Amino acid sequence: MASICKEVFIEAAPELVWDAVRDVGALHTRLVPGFVTDTRLEGDARIVTFASGLVVRERIVDVNDAERRLVWSVVESQPTHHNGALQVFAEGEGSRAVWIADLLPHELAPAIAAMMEQGLAAMKKALERQAAGVPRASSRKV
């Protein structure tokens, strides 16, 4: 089984970062806009559409407010096994987001690792903009 761990420092309070992470139906508007283009909730799952066109069904396993930890599993897509976890830690004046994915088959690891890096870059950009009070492009007045 491949296990991938990626992390990023975000210049935003952990409360702000966690609030966006735990909003499981708003990946495309709050957490990783641009990387994810749509998120729909269906029961205990979310249907996620990535900018690449890839669509996956993810079952939400746990939203742990005390630990600031979200766990999900891809249940309909290419991996035969996938478990993901994103945890938010206070670090200095900001936050550290740690994303871990365990998956099979091993051959998917490079592609999934690249997607995780893109996702963390989108997360950092979106949350640092929010922390700075910069409005999202869709909410700007003309």
From TrEMBL:
Superkingdom: Bacteria
InterPro entries xrefs: Polyketide_cyclase/dehydratase, START-like_dom_sf
Protein name: Polyketide cyclase / dehydrase and lipid transport
